[in-house]
């Protein structure tokens, strides 16, 4: 069995007060409990949820101080006594991923139905328990995602590119499944140029869907086209709450079969019902702070529109989402920066300047 020299201290980015800034400093390396594994994190994606955690602007406040992050890929370097020795995916030295859902009870009605994120006892990486913006982190063995050494063609995996699959990839893949859209049908991805959106476009294409991307600016438009959208709508070309953009969506398509709302502003949530096809589905994924979802009852009923929320995914969804990456279907561009530069990434996220996904390298 491989043995690792585990240090007593590590570098981490710590949220010490709401609104930040994060503090880059050394903290103790934790030791795994009986049912936990300790991972040496190599790369971690940066999600808009991490910005909400920093700002502490969700209805459920995060306990501070806290290490954020929930898209981590690393190597198992230690494990508790109850972690099976016969499971090669959890052996010392194996690759594994840490997701938003760090643990659940696995015994309640939600867990038994495959809805582990809804478990009343669920714990969340980088929100209720320390996350992946540190060099070593803990996770419940039952919930880590097993990662092979090579892709489906036997090539060495790009771990930096893989990291965002563990949250962004799982989240949008699950949302597309929840939409019920079938191959050949149209889906609108709102926020298509961002981290979630870039993933959503590629997963949708890999699932046989036709994609319209909505976002703001030429740079994001160029990125969306590279990802595979057939049409791109720049919302900055229209006044706020204008109906012209909705008409443009309806004109060539008679309305899309599904809309994925990945945006972090409330306006797109009000607009979607104006252009979704009758019998279409609106899937809410983004979490604008203090936003409300409203829809005209008459139109919702007589057009038989479905509005639903989609919240990350379960363990099986994670393995399926990873499978698309391993087969080479998901190639979202990532920008890799050092863990020490996380504060700069937060600022860029807050200003809407991140195209694709940012990933931190914990070694620098």
Q: Can you offer a commentary on this structure?
A:
There is one protein chain. It is built from eleven helices and 18 strands. It has helices spanning 48-55, 109-112, 159-162, 168-179, 195-206, 218-227, 244-253, 267-275, 297-302, 315-326, 342-350; strands at residues 9-15, 22-28, 36-46, 66-67, 72-79, 95-98, 101-103, 123-124, 136-140, 145-147, 186-190, 210-215, 231-234, 258-261, 281-284, 306-309, 334-338, 357-361. Helix 11 (342-350) links the parallel strand 17 (334-338) and strand 18. The longest helix is centred in the middle third of the chain and has 12 residues, at 168-179. Residues 174-230 form the Rhodanese domain. One of its GO terms (molecular function) is alcohol dehydrogenase (NAD+) activity. Its cofactor is Zn(2+).
């Amino acid at each position: 069995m491989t043995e690792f020299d585990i240090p007593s201290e590590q570098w981490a980015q710590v949220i010490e007060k709401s609104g930040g800034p994060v503090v880059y400093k050394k903290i103790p390396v934790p030791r795994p409990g009986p049912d936990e594994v300790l991972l040496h994190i190599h790369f971690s994606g940066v999600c808009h949820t991490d910005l909400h955690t920093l700002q502490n602007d969700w209805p459920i406040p995060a306990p501070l101080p806290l290490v954020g992050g929930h898209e981590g890929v690393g190597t198992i370097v230690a494990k508790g006594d109850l972690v099976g020795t016969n499971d090669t995916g959890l052996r010392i030295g194996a690759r594994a991923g840490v997701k938003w859902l760090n643990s659940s009870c696995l015994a309640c009605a939600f867990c038994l139905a495959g809805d582990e994120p809804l478990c009343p006892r669920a714990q969340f990486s980088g929100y209720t328990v320390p996350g992946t913006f540190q060099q070593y982190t803990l996770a419940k063995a039952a919930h880590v995602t097993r990662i092979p050494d090579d892709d489906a063609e036997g090539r060495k995996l790009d771990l930096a590119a893989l990291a965002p699959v563990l949250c962004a990839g799982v989240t949008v893949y699950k949302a597309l499944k929840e939409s019920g859209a079938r191959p050949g049908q149209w889906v609108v991805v709102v926020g298509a140029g961002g981290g979630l959106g870039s993933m959503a476009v590629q997963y949708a294409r890999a699932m046989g869907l036709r994609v319209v991307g909505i976002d703001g600016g030429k740079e994001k438009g160029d990125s969306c086209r590279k990802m595979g959208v057939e049409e791109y709508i720049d919302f900055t070309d229209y006044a706020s709450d204008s109906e012209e953009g909705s008409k443009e969506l309806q004109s060539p398509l008679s309305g899309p079969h599904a809309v994925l709302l990945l945006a972090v502003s409330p306006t797109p949530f009000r607009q979607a019902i104006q252009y979704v096809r009758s019998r279409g589905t609106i899937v809410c994924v983004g979490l604008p702070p203090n936003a409300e979802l409203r829809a005209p009852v008459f139109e919702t009923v007589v057009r038989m529109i479905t509005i639903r929320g989609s919240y990350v995914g379960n363990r099986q969804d994670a393995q399926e989402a990873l499978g698309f990456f391993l087969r080479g279907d998901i190639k979202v561009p990532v920008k890799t920066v050092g863990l020490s530069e996380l504060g700069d990434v937060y600022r860029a996220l807050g200003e809407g300047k991140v195209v694709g996904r940012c990933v931190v390298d914990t070694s620098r």
